[in-house]
UniProtKB/TrEMBL annotation:
Gene3D superfamilies per the UniProt record, alphabetical: 6.10.160.10, Ribosomal protein L20
A GO cellular-component term linked to this record: ribonucleoprotein complex
Database matches in SUPFAM superfamilies: Ribosomal protein L20 (SSF74731)
One GO BP: translation
Protein name: Large ribosomal subunit protein bL20m
Molecular function GO terms recorded: rRNA binding; structural constituent of ribosome
Family listed: Belongs to the bacterial ribosomal protein bL20 family.
Sorted UniProt keywords: Ribonucleoprotein, Ribosomal protein
Length: 158
């Protein structure tokens, strides 16, 4: 490209502007109206969308944590044991399961969760642990290890 005057050279901003605008327009491709086509409007809306996306990543993690806690506490309530007592008993038994794993077991493997609750209760009884929430020994209804052993469950299935 040959420029006869310096004023024409100044007006051309080169390829950098094209690619800068292209990046914004690609991020705004799913918007409607001027938010998609007009650069100055698109820039504002893309920046706002990116801020919301950043905040939403943290909120999604918190939502999943709340869901897992709800599932665990509901399953613990069925077995008459608090979530804190369950976690304490599993920690003392060296069963290291995180919230997500316990939540999945509570939802999809209720027998396995029942066994874990029985193990936690048994370990806390052996240690003489008193729950700080209830101020009493954990009381699980029909949560003896003999009742929920794998062999009894396998016999029941056949």
């Amino acid at each position: 490209m040959v420029f006869l005057t310096i004023s024409n050279l100044i007006r051309v901003r080169g390829p950098d502007e094209f690619w800068r605008k292209r990046r914004i327009f690609r991020l705004a491709a799913h918007f409607v109206g001027r938010r998609r086509n007009c650069y100055s409007v698109a820039v504002r809306n893309v920046h706002r969308a990116l801020v919301y996306a950043t905040k939403a990543r943290k909120l999604k993690k918190q939502d999943m944590k709340d869901l897992w806690n709800t599932r665990i506490s509901a399953a613990c309530e069925q077995h008459n044991i608090t979530a804190f007592t369950l976690k304490e008993g599993l920690d003392r038994s060296n069963i290291m399961l995180d919230r997500k794993s316990l939540s999945d077991l509570a939802s999809w493997e209720p027998r396995t969760f029942e066994c874990l609750a029985a193990i936690a209760k048994q370990k806390l009884q052996l240690d003489g642990f008193i729950d700080t929430v209830d101020k009493k020994y954990p009381t699980g209804v029909n949560l003896n290890l003999k009742d929920v052993m794998l062999e009894a469950w396998l016999k029941e299935k056949k």
